[in-house]
Amino acid sequence: MSVLPILRMGTVKSVTGFQEHLHSLGLTIPCDRALVSGEDSPLRMPLVRSEIRIGNRIVVQPMEGWDGTADGNPTENTIRRWRRFGSSGAKLIWGGEAVAVSRDGRASPNQLLAAPHTQEGLAKLRITLTEEHRLKTGSDDGLLVGLQLTHSGRYSCPNAYGRHEARILYRHPILDRRQALPADYPVLTDAEIDVIIESFHLAALMAWKLGFDFVDVKHCHGYLGHEFLSAHTREGRYGGSFENRTRFLREIVQGIRSVAPGLHIAVRLSAFDSVPFHPDPALSSNGKPERGIPETAENVIPYRWGFGINPLNPTETDLSEPVRFLSLLEELGIRLVNITAGSPYYNPHIQRPTLYPPSDGYLPPEDPLAGVARQMETVRHLKQKFPNLIFVGSGYTYLQDFLPHVAQAAVREGWVDLVGLGRMILSYPELLWDASAGNLIQRKRICRTFSDCTTGPRNGLPSGCYPLDDYYKNSKEAEQLAIAKKR
Ligand SMILES: Cc1cc2nc3c(=O)[nH]c(=O)nc-3n(C[C@H](O)[C@H](O)[C@H](O)COP(=O)(O)O)c2cc1C
Ligand code: SF4
């Protein structure tokens, strides 16, 4: 097997060693040698921009659990996850998790749904989180809690695991083949899109009534909002020109402003993408994942199905349209922006740098630190261009023991306004709180990117940190996951 010689982060013993390692890889990632604790910590500085006040620089990224009830309500598992989000000490909760605005737009039969019958359940999530946050930090002053609203589009799977019911905006030469969509598979009509926009308005109104501070109109990871941005080949009002491809966002924002005027609107954006990757077929053996390679073919160049990528070389980033998109956000009065990249379905190493791939993944085609650096550098570039927007950065978990040093330096040097944590929150929610309080860091709880939290859902199981979170030890789900991993 052609495993690249990637140094395991757990074997790097000191900050100096980590800095030398970055240097040997030719990567620029800011990293402080010593952590500052207490009020002087850059991670504990409040951020105030007009009417938005965020009590510190720590963010919980949205993370679904694939553990709602069949009718889209939270379960005990879901409530526990949100409680742990609260215990992180983060003052910005970016959406909790993706909540579908309509039943047909659920990414799994267990995704949460925004609907009249789920109001009580969604309210409970926010209340539980806030209570836990108060217990941890002593106050909910400066706490901002949002709800991430989504339609899963191409990745809709509302009724049964394995029964995909894609809602697509255009025919995609690679993804359609992967999803086995027949030649006559329908694209969403403009009238159907209008109905989806209306469901975003209703979901936002509900979030506002339930006391959420903002909603995230999700535009990332290959789901519907993101697919609009690359709908170059679509005809009609929602495709082709930049204006048409952003009509979905503009109409959602306009409607939310009229039904829920006090609600902040935020956008999580895949600022760049890449062509889909797949395991190198020349190397695959024994059904084990192999190194990922880009799936390109001459007939897909120029590549007309991407956003934030160079059509002539679609593994290369081109930020000219994302910059236009951020200008549009400013014009629309949107201040909160969360930058992510790619999609967990077709290029997971871009989105979620990882050493150990999930069951449907591939071995990293690059040192995962290069993936971290790419996301960080993109945010730095965009933040320099848009100093008035509030930027949350993503993809930090792979930094593992050095995450606090990098997070502190990134905020201190102005690379990013707030540091968002995904997988690390599942294994060790309080990592940045501990680091910025001068508490001992619990190394055993540091996420090592084993990917079980992704492999679980890929096999119809709830997500969670199976290896490191005691809650899952000896559980029925852990047994099922072990069986699935052997298959
Ligand atoms: C189990 C799991 C569930 C996720 N669910 C969501 C989601 O609901 N919405 C979203 O925007 N991103 C979701 N993500 C992506 C994360 O928010 C984050 O961008 C990604 O994990 C990279 O950050 P990290 O390196 O800190 O993990 C999910 C990631 C994981 C591992
Ligand atoms: S299962 Fe746990 S250790 Fe593995 S990637 Fe997810 S959070 Fe990290």
The tally of helices reads 16
Biggest sheet overview? 8 strands, parallel, barrel
Gyration radius, rounded = 21 Å
The residue ranges in which pLDDT falls below 50 over 5 or more consecutive positions are: none
Strand content bin = 5-15%
**Largest sheet, order of strands side by side?**
3-4-6-7-8-13-14-15
Hetero compounds: flavin mononucleotide, iron/sulfur cluster
Global shape: globular
Helical content class? 25-40%
The total strand number stands at 15
Separation of the first and last Cα atoms: 19 Å
Oligomeric state as shown: single chain
What does the average pLDDT come to? 96
Which structural class should the secondary elements be placed in? alpha/beta
